[in-house]
Design a protein that fits this description.
Elements lengths: L5 H8 L5 E8 L3 E5 L5 E3 L2 E3 L5 E4 L12 E7 L4 H7 L6 E8 L14 E15 L4 E8 L15 H7 L23
Antiparallel strand pairs: 1-2, 1-7, 3-4, 5-6, 6-9, 7-8, 8-9
């Protein structure tokens, strides 16, 4: 069971709970975004307030293991996300954390104060451009989404070389070797 700091426990016991998001996208470059109105330094990293964070899903509790998708939308005015999507971000890590705000409206950023609410990978990135706004839409899935994937394994010399260059089990597959098999009674 998770234990909370006394400051977090006090906020959770109150009627007024406010929180912010800290989102990390590990693409070619690492992007750190926050829903707070100012930049935040957490764990030695700066999360930018003016990062274009446009929309994000609310964390959901689930008692079953499922493939729940998580959606993040970022305004992409400088085409940074479009450039990232072109070099392929599918399978890249995404982490979403939540920090509660104290009674003065400042985030509690201690090691025991920030909660990880989502950790998964990008599954379906797309750009939406309606000439008024350009948005990068990231649909992310949990690690449980791998449970129903089918991985192809090519049984050829070149296919085996991609798995292990020192494996020689398929080296003679396509050579002209004849093998005499005897059928029936000897």
């Amino acid at each position: 069971m998770r234990t909370f700091s006394s400051a977090i426990q006090t906020i959770l016991n109150s009627d007024n709970i406010n929180f912010i998001y800290l989102i990390e996208l590990q693409f070619t470059s690492t992007y750190r975004l926050t829903s707070f109105n100012a930049d935040i330094v957490y764990d030695g990293n700066t999360y930018e307030a003016n990062s274009g964070l446009y929309e994000f899903d609310t964390p959901k509790m689930s008692s079953v293991v499922d493939r729940e998708a998580y959606r993040i939308v970022v305004a992409d005015l400088a085409d940074e996300m479009a450039a990232e999507f072109e070099v392929n971000v599918v399978g890249k890590p995404v982490e979403v954390k939540v920090a509660l705000l104290d009674t003065d409206g400042y985030p509690l950023l201690g090691a025991d104060d920030v909660l990880s609410v989502y950790k998964g990978t990008v599954d379906n990135p797309k750009i939406s451009n309606d000439y008024e706004e350009k948005l990068a839409i990231l649909e992310c899935t949990s690690p449980m989404s791998d449970l129903d994937t089918v991985n192809s394994f090519y049984t050829s010399k070149d296919g085996m070389d991609q798995v292990s260059s020192s494996d020689t089990s398929f080296d003679e597959i396509f050579d002209n070797k004849e093998v005499s098999l005897k059928w029936g009674k000897v």
